[in-house]
Amino acid sequence: MGNFIKIATGMQFMSKMMRFRPVPRIWVLALMTVNMASLYFIDTLEGQVVLGVFMMGGMFMFTMDAKMGFVRLMGAGHFLWFLMLPWLYMRLPQIPADSLMYKWVLAVIVMNGISLVIDVWDVIRYAKGEREPLYT
Question: Are 112 and 45 in contact (CB under 8 A)?
Fold first, then answer.
């Protein structure tokens, strides 16, 4: 029963994200794609870290959505990116610059970095009182 609830919660969360306007929806899908590409690099430490951090963030956000609704505080689920992104940046010199992995790590750094700026802004807006669920 517990796994069914987790799957249902995840599906409800995803259905809310698919109600975003087109540009934010495309952004979220691109962000998810870049992070899930970690499966291609799962035999590397970088791939394992990105996948693990992505999954932990997802669990945090599923739980938050179940308890509070889809609120602006949702971006707090990416807080581990504040640790992961500098670490990935420091790893870049050890990865051949002409490799697909280098391009992927760079894409993760850029896209997740942009997302963090948006997340911080949303958390500030939540702290200032914008607490109504965005989607129900």
Answer: no
CA distance 98 to 109: 17
Q: Residue 108 in 3-state DSSP?
A: helix
Tokens representing 66 are 């179940």
Do 13 and 65 meet the contact criterion of CB atoms below 8 Å apart?
yes
Q: Which two tokens stand for residue 128?
A: 């200032």
The mean predicted confidence, pLDDT, of the chain is 89
Q: How far is CA 21 from CA 18, 26, 27, 32, 123, in A?
A: 8, 9, 10, 16, 20
Taking only the tens place, the pLDDT of each residue in 50-105 is 999 999 999 998 888 888 888 999 889 999 999 999 999 999 999 999 999 999 99
Short-list 3, 18, 53, 57, CA closest to 135: 18
- C-alpha angle with apex 132: 59 to 74, nearest 5 degrees? 25
Where exactly are the structural domains of the chain? 2-127
Apex CA 107: angle with CA 44 and CA 83, to 5°? Answer: 65
